[in-house]
Amino acid sequence: MMSYYTPTGGLPPQTDLLTDRAIVKLAYTVIPKGVLRDIVTSSLPGFSNTRAWIIAKPTPSSAQTFSQLIVEISPGGEAAKPEPEAGVEGVIFVTTGKLTLTLDGETHILEEGGYAFLAPGADWSLKNEGDEITSFHWIRKAYEWLEGVDAPASFVTRDQDIEPTPMVGTDAWLTTRFADSSDMAHDMQVNIVTFKPGGSIPFAETHVMEHGLFVLEGKAVYHLNGDWVEVEAGDYMLLRAFCPQACYAGGPGDFRYLLYKDMNRQIKLT
């Protein structure tokens, strides 16, 4: 059974210690699940009965290429025009509840594991028509157009319907890819990475791709720019370009995270 951690907010009691695992450095940020409380939520323009944890936005100390939100819609909540900016693409990934997505005239019901890629310029809206809170990740990126290449089309799928692909030489490190990474129409990917207990990234990846990682399940120890950091379900890591990164999955179950990365574009110098 797959599981998808979902924050519920609340506030800690006055007797709790102030110490936690939050880290903000130039190379990386760790936002532990204990930070996702009521007091740090935001309301979103155009949404009703909704609150959001904004966990990444383009700032000098955060993301450079994308934004990421955890959005919670109560029963009856909706947004007729969620995306306010032209030319912005997005991904929605549902972790709990049931979300009605109307996309270019077609209605889709997204439940746990539901995934939607929203092409730049797509006509879409959201509604919670159920009796329970719905929570989903919403990743947004300004699409980088390529001459002679059409933007990718919108699509809807599910985590449960896609077979993970193992890394070469191991069955302990797998990736669920929702789009073809070699398709130059895509300038980003949002995948799910799975490590079996004891699985690892056995070298310090140091690359141009920026990452946002939300831990859906399990625990691991990450090696980030020379620091060893423990993470578990509900934690979020933002890794800036060229941040050295590796990990060991701690078990006893799978370690899985939702992963953003930018890709397939030349570096802009002017």
Could you spell the SSE succession in H and E letters? Answer: EEEEEEEEEEEEEEEEEEEEEE
The average pLDDT value, as a whole number, equals 97
Span between N and C termini?
A: 49 Å
Number of helices: 0
Radius of gyration: 18 Å
Main attributes?
270 residues; mainly beta; eight-stranded antiparallel sheet; six-stranded antiparallel sheet; 22 strands; EC 3.5.3.26; ureidoglycine aminohydrolase activity; hydrolase; Cupin_2
Write the layout of secondary structure elements.
Blueprint: E1 23-24, E2 28-31, E3 50-56, E4 67-73, E5 78-79, E6 88-96, E7 99-103, E8 106-110, E9 114-118, E10 124-127, E11 134-142, E12 155-158, E13 165-166, E14 173-176, E15 188-195, E16 200-205, E17 211-217, E18 219-224, E19 227-232, E20 236-239, E21 245-249, E22 255-262
Tell me what the structure shows.
The protein has an 8-stranded antiparallel beta sheet, with no helix packed on it. The termini are far apart. Strand 1 and strand 2 (28-31) form a beta hairpin. It has strands spanning 23-24, 28-31, 50-56, 67-73, 78-79, 88-96, 99-103, 106-110, 114-118, 124-127, 134-142, 155-158, 165-166, 173-176, 188-195, 200-205, 211-217, 219-224, 227-232, 236-239, 245-249, 255-262. By secondary structure, the protein is mainly β.
